[in-house]
Design a protein that fits this description.
Elements (H helix, E strand, L loop, with lengths): L12 H19 L1 H8 L27 H17 L3
Helix pairs in contact: 1-2, 1-3
Amino acid sequence: MGRCRKYPLRTDWEKVKDEIMERGVLKKFETHADIREILLSTDDELIVENSPSDYYWGCGKDRTGKNKLGLILMTVREKLRVPYSNE
C-alpha cells in the first residue's frame, strides 16, 4: 500500500513517517523472535539500508542518503536489548 498511489498520503505524512516506521519496525521485531535475534546479534554495528535508489530511508547510490531505516533499526535494537537480554 505504501508504494501504491491509489491511496492518498496523510496530509501530515512528512511529519509522522519516521515515527510510524519505527513503530512498525519495533512491532515486527517484537513479534518475530528469529529476526529479533539476528538484529540483536549485530551488537553495536552500524546498520545501513543499502538502497541505491532511496536517499531518505537508505544510503542512496553515492552513500549520501539519510539512512533513516538503518537509524530506526539501531534504535529498535536498543529498545529490544533490555527486555530480551535474559532469553
